[in-house]
UniProtKB/TrEMBL annotation, chains A, B:
Signal peptide boundaries: none
Phylogenetic lineage: Bacteria, Bacillati, Actinomycetota, Actinomycetes, Mycobacteriales
Name of the featured protein: FAD-dependent oxidoreductase
Organism (species): Gordonia desulfuricans
Family: Belongs to the class-III pyridine nucleotide-disulfide oxidoreductase family.
Gene3D superfamilies, per the entry: FAD/NAD(P)-binding domain, Rhodanese-like domain
Length: 570, 570
């Protein structure tokens, strides 16, 4: 068996290593276009920022270590330029000329390359991407060489990691994002928390705006003293010594498509075992298209974890097909550290659920990371999308300083295993005061969602505030002190402990209108809603309370007021 | 509806609160024998140790706060002495005399009380338990009043938390445990890591030994200057100003058993909705007996999390039976912090699997808590028991400084949802370098276990070392430097990168015997095993490597040697 693997990072190297463990006698050649294999691509921003000190730390494996331990023939700076599937050969550009290599099985793991948007100046030397060890080394040298200002184009995961790294080095950093908010896959009420943290770090965010040109400044001619100016559609001019381009990736598949491997929007189409449309050719990783586990939509998933795990399964499919397991549909779990926060997501978001036409409801909560009475507890801001018909968990997102990764991992497992909100209530999670609560945030998310699914309560969502404010009677059940810090315009203040004795007053205030209740986090308003529903009122409470509302709407276009700023209330 | 709940902590108060949320008009009385309701029972050790500063922090709710928010009639210092199930009344000892209260529904959540072993002196005033706020306040006062030495009887969860707390206050602390090792539900190779940490904290452990008496010393008469001496079966005499008794709990059910409520070894028997044998009476929490989710064995589960969650379900069963979900069988997830470590477990352990007659295999691994190239990565020592027939996950345990709670929570979810080892490989967990690895420890556990289940490799367990050493050829595939720090007697050293070129030498060394391979963690020996199996040898590798072997066996009765201490090897 002669196996050729194209691409020596993540999925490709995972496949090659597994292949050797399955077949001691196979000839296994790994062809990597770049200078390094099996490097820590997810570590590059931290190398730029200085948390990872040595370049050597990024090189998890080398061709030598892979030959020694796994007897792999790893060839760097080898670029596959063409495949002849009928002859079962690949044509390779090597440092010493061209070569033709024969294969019995070919695994394609070419990955993706950075998208270069058609902006004037995008090819200027001041513009870099952060995809390779070479990129990271050059960027670090540039930073240590005195760069003072950076502009990051794209506020996705890598863009924000790069922005944080550059800021840690003391640069002034602007981040530009075309979408409405940073980390576009995150919901708005989560992304705003990340934006606040970026602000705290001293990073300036420009969202909802396009970069229209990158003007290279020739020395001090323009007077900025910086190498370039990034011009935005709103007229802003951002001086920059460095521009980091991170607006997305696109599958790097041209020679394979040319060889007849079926692709869909540039990504290689594979079956559940990674087989392509051509016999003897498999593919894995960022260059392939997958079927989303929740929505069933087809999409590429450019994540290291799924690629690494799938690489192993593809090797199984090639070398022992009878025992090979199908590759799992991706759930799309992801996490990023920003300053003191983690922001994480799993499963579908509103946009993908709407694209797939799946009816959903969203619940929000802000539980403590561990028992509130134990020192160091911090709020986790958590949302969960559930299917309205049965409470199936469709997606979840969380932002917080502690315990976010744990809850998202449990919820990712719950989504993979098709749990419902009610099932979450029953999970036996590890509890001691330093780690969680007797009702863990995940249990609570299940309880809150199940109350919605089974009709115990009705919730309203923050984005309906304008409609609610114009048509409903709004009841604030927080304390007078909380009310005084800002409340929904015209909301009646009745602290939740006074609901029972002031029912008549509330009924009169409602005057036949539906009652829409809120508190700070959603817990007291839930208790109030149960009392008011028992009194026969049409009542719903705000999912996630004012905490979520502020995160989603900011000042809500004047619908949030502080008492001094409004006419005295009757 | 007149609902009486007996017991105002965890399960009881959870039931009462949910009952109110379901029925605004019910009369709900909570009778609590103690002074406090809804207090932070899991926080008591941390209050003693000083991490929780104020007594008020332990009082999560008070009768007043519960009346205000939930209109509950909470009566502390009310002890239910008898139940007349036919008349549907309870007899109560109140601070002001006796009372008789009628109910429509009765929920029993009396909890468990500390076991007092029949040791002479156990009733001395120097002996305390740590079950109530009063216990904790008294213990803290004693500590702050100058106590210098403490003996903790019982090295379970609460015993160790108490020992750590007392040690944090500067006391000399001895812990006495009758079982072979601390934290008896933990496997030996995990418990030894906890014991090492206790030693690092300066806590002395006496395991596998009984306390036979607690001799009260009258002042300085005995010359120790301490209030008592704890005498052990091995003759040790441990001076003590304080003795904390924490050798287990027993359901506190006498009046209910006397009323005819069916019990099993003292614990109340309930159906899946918490109903007891008597109509109109339900029960929940530490006083009840459950069916274990993995083994099907019946056992009480004295854990706060399941009690809190079950309380809510019992209220559903009482107040809206048509919608009530069955209570989940407990998975038995638990965690404890000891010094810088967390020790956690979920599902079944060897003892319960053997009691249930379930055939299992165990895999061990020592992955990093997050990407090794990112600063701060620390080893997680993880084991997983799987069913031999199909890889069903039966139990898991982990000890480490970081990320233990997360992995155990994911595995607890996997056990609840009946995942197999192979399923674990597919979990999409949140990966960025500060949080995990592209192949998360949970994914790795699945890969390692699946290799065992499908026969890709065979493992041997550390406890078979004596048998292996006498009948097999043992191969050490670590580096010469590692070998020199200690190795299995007569093991041949062949670093894993030299296996291929030294196959003949290894075959000659085996001389027809089975080859048993090991390395430090189990990864290199796995690679070696695959090469040797391909060469036709009978080969198995050590689960978890030397790291697990040392943790399980210590010096293995002389089977582990360092080169200087052994005859020169041929």
């Amino acid at each position: 068996m002669k196996l050729i693997v194209v691409g020596g990072v993540a999925g490709g190297m995972s496949a090659a290593a597994r292949a050797r463990r399955l077949d001691e006698n196979a000839e296994i050649i790994v062809l990597e276009r770049g200078e390094h294999v099996s490097f820590a691509n997810c570590g590059l921003p931290y190398f730029v920022g200085g948390e990872i000190a040595a370049e050597a730390d990024l090189l998890v494996q080398t061709p030598e270590s892979l030959r020694n331990s796994l007897n792999l023939d790893v060839r760097t700076n080898h670029d596959v330029t063409a495949v002849d599937a009928a002859a079962k050969v690949v044509h390779v550009q090597t440092p010493h000329g061209t070569a033709t290599l024969a294969y019995d099985a070919l695994i394609l793991a070419p990955g993706a390359r950075a998208v270069r948007p058609p902006i004037p100046g995008v090819d200027s030397p001041v513009v870099t991407t952060l995809r390779t060890v070479g990129d990271a080394v050059a960027l670090r040298e540039h930073v240590l060489g005195g760069a003072r200002r950076a502009v990051v184009l794209g506020a996705g995961f890598i863009g924000l990691e790069a922005a944080e790294a550059l800021r840690m080095r003391g640069l002034e950093v602007d981040v530009v994002e075309l979408a409405d908010h940073v980390l576009p896959p995150l919901e708005a009420e989560m992304a705003s928390l990340v934006r606040d943290e970026l602000g705290r770090l001293g990073i300036t965010v420009h969202d909802g705006v396009a970069a229209v040109s990158i003007d290279s400044d020739t020395g001090t001619d323009t007077g900025t003293g910086h190498a370039a100016t990034v011009v935005l559609a709103d007229g802003s001019r951002l001086p920059a010594d460095i521009v980091v381009l991170s607006v997305g990736v696109t599958p790097d598949t041209a020679p394979f498509a040319a060889a007849g491997v079926a692709c869909e929007r540039g990504a290689i189409v594979v079956d559940e075992h990674g087989a392509t449309s051509i016999d003897g050719i498999w593919a894995v990783g960022d260059a392939t298209v997958c079927t989303d586990a929740v929505t069933g939509l087809r999409r590429p998933v450019a994540l290291a974890g799924p690629a690494n795990r799938a690489g192993r399964l593809v090797a199984d499919a090639v070398l022992r097909p009878a025992k090979a397991r199908p590759m799992p549909a991706p759930v799309g779990t992801a996490i990023v550290r920003i300053g003191d926060l983690a922001a994480a997501m799993t499963g579908a978001n509103r946009r993908s659920l709407e694209a797939a036409g799946i009816g959903y409801q969203t619940v929000h909560l802000h539980p403590n990371s561990h028992a509130g009475y134990f020192p160091g507890a911090q709020a986790i801001h958590l949302l969960m999308h559930i299917r309205v018909t049965d409470g199936l968990i469709l997606g979840a997102q969380a932002v917080g300083a502690d315990g976010v990764d744990k809850r998202i991992d449990v919820l990712a497992t719950a989504i993979r295993t098709h749990l419902t909100a009610a099932d979450l209530m029953d999970l036996d999670l590890a509890y001691a005061p330093p780690y969680g609560s007797a009702k863990d945030p995940v249990n609570l998310a299940g309880m809150i969602a199940e109350n919605v699914v089974d009709g115990t309560v009705t919730v309203w969502q923050a984005d309906r505030l304008a409609e609610v404010a114009s048509s409903a009677a709004v009841l604030d059940v927080r304390s007078a002190q909380e009310y005084a810090t800002g409340h929904v315009r015209d909301a009646l203040l009745v602290p939740h402990t006074e609901i029972r004795e002031r029912l008549d007053e509330i009924t009169a205030f409602a005057a036949g209108r539906p009652l829409r209740v809120y508190c700070e986090s959603g817990m007291r308003s839930y208790l109030a809603t149960r009392i008011l529903a028992a009194a026969g009122l049409d009542v719903a409470h705000l999912s996630g309370g004012m905490s979520t509302l502020r995160a989603r709407l900011g000042d809500a276009g004047g619908l949030l007021v502080v008492p001094d700023a409004e006419p005295a209330h009757a």
